[in-house]
């Protein structure tokens, strides 16, 4: 079965076998956090960040999800199975645009394949551009996400919070979440660094090989995404490499019908302890 077809079927199967846990709307918090909205295995809320010092800069906040022990939730590209979170801010007031940032995730491997996400909990930092600068923002979020242990459960909840730029007690945790967001980089930039990306035509199926400059004893992982969400590229696997390099490789599979990998912008996320970078490049 084509990989892209498999990726479409797996989330549907997960939703059917899980038990939906729909949360009710949470009331707005006093100044710097909304109320928690909880189900049996997770909880969600909004937290505010203090306003930046420079006038006109976007407001800062975070979407926090905490998870029961043993449960996980997913990154923007979930991998072989799972469902990416969906953030809906359309009911917000005095909001022109919201940008969600994604902290570096980790890989999970089991009998069902490899997935990408978070355990324990995660804060997605967000920036908010008000429609009218200087006026309070009423942030209203409807979040749909999935949590998984031995089975997967779809969850949805609604929370809201007023942002007025006041000092927030959540600045330290929000700053840590922002620090975990991969930094955009060019090929060869950073340490560790993605040094080269190439297409290999040899072997039974064409593959993409990625060379990473990193010490042999440093834990590193690599994720790849296509230019649109309907690409379902395999997770890169470690491969033998020359001294001083770490190598990852994946088959060219999971492309949407009619798509070609030549010239397509591929986004690579390289994750190491305390360091993550994001490189977008095109294959010849």
Question: Could you explain how this protein is built, in words?
Answer:
This protein has helices at residues 3-17, 171-179; strands at 21-22, 37-38, 42-48, 59-67, 72-79, 86-88, 95-100, 106-110, 113-119, 121-130, 137-148, 152-163, 183-184, 193-200, 207-213, 221-225, 237-239, 245-251, 265-272, 275-282. It is mainly beta and 284 residues long. Residues 4-30 have low confidence and may be disordered.
What is the gist of this entry?
With about 280 residues, this protein is mainly beta.
Question: By helix and strand content, what is the structural category?
Answer: mainly beta
Helix amount, in percent? under 10%
Biggest β-sheet description: 5 strands, antiparallel
H/E topology pattern: HEEEEEEEEEEEEHEEEEEEEE
Radius of gyration computed on alpha carbons: 20 Å
Number of helices: 2
Side by side, the strands of the main sheet go 2-3-4-10-7
- Assembly annotation: single chain
Distance between the termini: 27 Å
Mean pLDDT: 88
The stretches of 5 or more residues where confidence is low (pLDDT under 50) are 4-30
Strand content: over 45%
Using the alpha-carbon principal axes, give the shape. Answer: globular
How many β-strand stretches?
A: 20
Characteristic key phrases:
single chain; 284 residues; mainly beta; four-stranded mixed β-sheet; 2 helices; 8% helix; globular
């Amino acid at each position: 079965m084509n990989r892209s077809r498999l990726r479409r079927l797996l989330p549907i199967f997960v939703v059917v076998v899980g038990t939906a846990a729909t949360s009710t709307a949470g009331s707005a918090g006093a100044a710097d956090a909304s109320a928690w909205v909880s189900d049996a295995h997770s909880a969600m809320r909004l937290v505010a960040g203090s306003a930046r010092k420079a006038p006109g800069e976007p407001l800062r906040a975070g979407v926090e999800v905490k998870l029961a022990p043993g449960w996980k939730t997913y990154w923007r590209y979930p991998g072989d199975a799972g469902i990416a979170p969906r953030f809906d801010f359309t009911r917000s007031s005095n909001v022109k645009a919201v940008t969600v940032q994604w902290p570096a995730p980790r890989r999970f491997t089991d009998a069902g394949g490899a997935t990408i996400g978070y355990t324990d909990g995660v804060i997605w930092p967000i920036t908010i551009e008000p429609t009218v600068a200087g006026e309070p923002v009423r942030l209203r979020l409807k979040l749909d996400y999935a949590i998984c242990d031995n089975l997967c459960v779809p969850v949805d909840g609604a929370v809201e919070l007023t942002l007025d730029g006041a000092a927030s007690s959540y600045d330290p945790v929000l700053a840590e979440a922002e620090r975990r967001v991969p930094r955009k980089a060019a090929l060869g930039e950073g340490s560790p660094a993605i040094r080269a990306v190439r297409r290999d035509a040899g072997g039974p199926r064409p593959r993409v090989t990625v060379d990473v400059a990193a010490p042999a004893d440093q834990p590193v992982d690599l994720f790849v995404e296509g230019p649109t969400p309907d690409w379902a590229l395999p997770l890169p696997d470690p491969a033998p490499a020359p001294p001083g390099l770490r190598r990852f490789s994946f088959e060219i599979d999971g492309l949407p019908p009619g798509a070609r990998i030549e010239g397509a912008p591929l986004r690579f996320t390289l994750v190491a302890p305390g360091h993550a970078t994001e490189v977008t490049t095109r294959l010849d």
